[in-house]
């Protein structure tokens, strides 16, 4: 398992998440994944919100949340490019802003 803590941003939105890529060469783990419907050799990307403790496997299971759907889809499609600590800026992804947002800690200063 490979995890990355990311910052999802949108209009007036800050959501810290942990995203996990579940991949394995272990036959027992492969069996367990197949048993619940995940195919072999396909990364399963789980996104877990640190603020609400909600998680989803599929981007379109966020109940109509534009922010989470777009961000999760972007994370899945760009897993190898996304680095721990990156900002996933939904407005930028959708072409609604000319440049991506900076991390909140840099934009507003460290408060914690």
What does this entry look like structurally?
With 112 residues, this protein is of the alpha+beta class. It is built from four helices and five strands; from the N terminus they run E-E-H-E-E-H-E-H-H. The chain has one domain. The chain has a five-stranded mixed β-sheet. The longest helix is centred in the middle third of the chain and has 12 residues. The radius of gyration is 15 Å and the shape is elongated.
What does the secondary structure layout of this molecule look like, with pairings?
Blueprint: E1 2-10, E2 13-22, H1 27-35, E3 44-49, E4 55-56, H2 66-77, E5 87-89, H3 90-93, H4 104-107
Describe the structure in brief.
By secondary structure, this protein is of the alpha+beta class. It has four helices and five strands.
Structural descriptors:
5-stranded mixed beta sheet, 4 helices, 26% helix, elongated
């Amino acid at each position: 398992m490979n995890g990355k803590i990311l910052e999802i941003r949108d209009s007036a939105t800050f959501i810290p998440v942990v995203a996990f890529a579940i991949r394995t060469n272990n036959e027992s783990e492969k069996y367990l994944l197949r048993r619940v419907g995940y195919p072999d050799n396909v990364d399963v990307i789980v996104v877990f919100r640190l603020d609400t403790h909600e998680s989803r496997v599929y981007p379109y299971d966020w109940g109509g949340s534009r922010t989470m759907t777009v961000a999760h889809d972007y994370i899945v499609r760009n897993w190898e490019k996304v680095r721990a600590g990156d900002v996933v800026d939904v407005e930028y992804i959708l072409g609604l802003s000319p440049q991506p947002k900076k991390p909140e800690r840099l934009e507003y200063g460290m408060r914690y």
